[in-house]
Amino acid sequence: MEYLHDILSDDELRTKCPGLAEPVYEFAKYIGEHISKGKLSPKAFCLTAALSIGDIQQGRCGFCIGDSVFPRYLAEHKGEVLLQSPFVLQIIDALTDEEFSTETRRICKETMGWDPPKKPVADNIRTAISDDCPANIVAAVNWWKNTLASPKMDNGDSQMDLFMALLGSSLTRGNTEEAIAKFCEELSKLLCEESKNGRDTFHLDVDYGPGEYLYDAAEKAGVSLQFPCKTNMWITPQKVSVSYGYCAPWEDVWMAS
User: Fold this and answer.
1) Is the CB of residue 201 less than 8 Å from the CB of residue 235?
2) Number of Cβ atoms within 10 Å of the Cβ of 59
């Protein structure tokens, strides 16, 4: 087991654990700055994480003696950080051994209700997609599969702390590996059926709740998921493009060869 202080304070954390939202990295960094410099137990990590949550809620550093400057990012993005904090466990999954990760998850689930899916999602969530499903739809469904495992909640207003907390109150309870797999299976069936009937362009969207296709797939799967707000996806025969979050730039996640 490596020293968690070194792991969570590593400047290359984003490279080692790609694909998480910025609040998760900032939260991990804060924990790394205040945990023991020696080897740490899962119980001690969970305690440090819980104390860090308290600091963020109150906007001050409870670990420090005397005057100290609380991180500006955590103060300005309080709601987002509190909402995304459980996903720090995906960093623990990636950078620690299985025994440490499993015990840490057990304690965090029992004490704080944290239970996010594990990463990498592609290796953990098996989705039954028909062999004759078009490649653009396969790519689109896989994007949602990976995104729903740690959805970014960006509504463009970092000061809406209470709203964001309420929005994400069931974030890690509903977005389980099983629920995501069921949802993606139904989404692929729905889009493939529409494709066979002649539709070749789809708009999948989330405002503060899922649009038609995403909603219908979740209903058929019988699951309640937290979707990333202010997100849009266009699926065409030429490419799959996504705007992930409030006024986020468009990114092509698949293109026809």
Assistant:
1) yes
2) 11
Q: Where are the domains of the chain?
A: 4-112, 129-255
Q: What is the pLDDT of residue 18?
A: 80
201 near 236, Cβ under 8 Å? yes
Rounded CA separation 177/117 (Å) = 6
pLDDT at 240: 96
Q: Amino acid identity, residue 242?
A: V
Nearest Cα to Cα of residue 24 among 86, 103, 72, 96: 86
Interatomic CA distance for residues 220 and 186, integer angstroms? 7
CA 113 to chain CA centroid, nearest Å: 16
- pLDDT attached to residue 120: 54
Indicate the pLDDT class of residue 14, thresholds 50, 70 and 90: confident
CATH number of 129-255: 3.90.640.90
